[in-house]
């Protein structure tokens, strides 16, 4: 019998991907070229939020142990964050209250970085996985911040506004760091450079790492210097989506135990969400126009291509 956590996470992934895909269908049809991928940015970002929210709600006792020791009510925060993640996934999938949701999700992930990941890095400065997790959540927060910036009323929205600049710099730094990591540790699965070793059945494993590292490094530099930002972000996001589909979904499909399935789900949706965050940055540098819940074109993204 499948565990409640496996069922909850799997159902959430299917539901939010399907819901978001249906809502985004018009945008995908109207967009041209690689902008079709940008049109799916909210879907790629929302579905993982729902999956991780269900993980919090079905495994709250384990999640509660990650709450800083000085904070009271560990179980409350595990459930609270779980509900907040599911609510954010609904908002993004349905394209409702996007600016507010983007700001709140950005705040949440930036607090995770400040309260959990920076102390972890300070305690284990030589452990590259602590750094990788910190940059991962920093990118998640930056993607949400970029979404909020894209939804800002047109009178105050420019590509040089502070929120876009902060998101661009944080994401650019993360991509450069991850790109270098792929060249230094090519035996590990590419994407977000965590502890999973490349499976033995994958052909040319080092080639996957080197190609991914090259794309992330070049894209990160381009984003940092703000040249061809839209194209750099789209290509980096595309690589993450392709890794999700052609590497991590097969890894998940080969999992047999409940524990391995949960790990596989985390890698699938971590990678997809990382790609979605990068594509949300591209939203601010594209001519692509997103339709909102009213199905009227929003006044967003009329900027010239980066």
Q: Which structural class do the helices and strands define? A: mainly alpha
Question: Number of domains in the coordinates?
Answer: 1
Q: Which residues sit in consecutive blocks of at least 5 with pLDDT less than 50?
A: 294-306
> Strand tally, please?
0
List its salient traits.
306 residues, mainly alpha, globular, disordered C terminus
What is the strand and helix layout of this fold?
Blueprint: H1 4-30, H2 35-38, H3 41-58, H4 60-63, H5 74-94, H6 98-123, H7 128-150, H8 162-184, H9 205-224, H10 229-253, H11 258-282
Helix pairs in contact: 1-3, 1-5, 1-11, 3-5, 3-11, 5-6, 6-7, 7-8, 7-11, 8-9, 9-10, 10-11
Overview of this protein structure:
This protein has helices spanning 4-30, 35-38, 41-58, 60-63, 74-94, 98-123, 128-150, 162-184, 205-224, 229-253, 258-282. It has 306 residues and is an all-alpha fold. It is globular and about 45 Å long. The protein is built from 11 helices and no strands. α1 (4-30) runs parallel beside α5, α1 (4-30) runs parallel beside α11 (258-282) and α3 (41-58) packs antiparallel against α5 (74-94). The N and C termini lie far apart (51 Å). The chain has one domain.
What can be said about this structure in brief?
Helices cover 71% and strands 0% of the residues.
């Amino acid at each position: 019998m499948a565990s409640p956590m496996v069922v909850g996470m799997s159902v959430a992934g299917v539901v939010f991907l399907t819901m978001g895909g249906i809502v985004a269908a018009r945008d995908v049809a109207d967009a041209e070229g690689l902008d079709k991928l940008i049109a799916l940015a909210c879907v790629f970002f929302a579905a993982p939020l729902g999956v991780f929210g269900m993980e919090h709600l079905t495994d709250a006792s384990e999640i509660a142990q990650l709450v800083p020791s000085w904070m009271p009510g560990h179980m409350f925060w595990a459930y609270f964050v779980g509900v907040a993640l599911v609510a954010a996934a609904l908002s993004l999938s349905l394209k409702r209250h996007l600016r507010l949701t983007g700001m709140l999700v950005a705040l949440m992930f930036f607090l995770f970085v400040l309260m959990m990941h920076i102390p972890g890095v300070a305690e284990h400065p030589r452990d590259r996985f602590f750094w990788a997790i910190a940059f991962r959540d920093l990118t998640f927060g930056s993607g949400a911040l970029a979404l909020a910036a894209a939804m800002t009323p047109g009178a105050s929205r420019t590509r040089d506004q502070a929120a876009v600049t902060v998101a661009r710099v944080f994401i650019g730094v993360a991509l450069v760091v991850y790109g270098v990591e792929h060249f230094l540790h090519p035996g590990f699965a590419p994407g977000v450079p965590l502890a999973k070793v490349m499976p033995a059945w994958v052909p040319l494993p080092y080639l996957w790492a080197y190609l991914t590292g090259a794309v992330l490094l070049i894209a990160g530099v381009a984003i940092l210097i703000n040249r061809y930002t839209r194209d750099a972000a789209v290509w980096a996001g595309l690589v993450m989506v392709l890794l999700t589909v052609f590497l991590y979904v097969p890894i998940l499909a080969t999992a047999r135990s409940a524990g391995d399935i949960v790990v596989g789900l985390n890698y699938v949706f971590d990678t997809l969400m990382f790609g979605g965050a990068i594509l949300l940055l591209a939203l601010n540098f594209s001519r692509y126009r997103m339709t909102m819940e009213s199905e009227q074109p929003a006044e967003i993204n009329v900027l010239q291509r980066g």
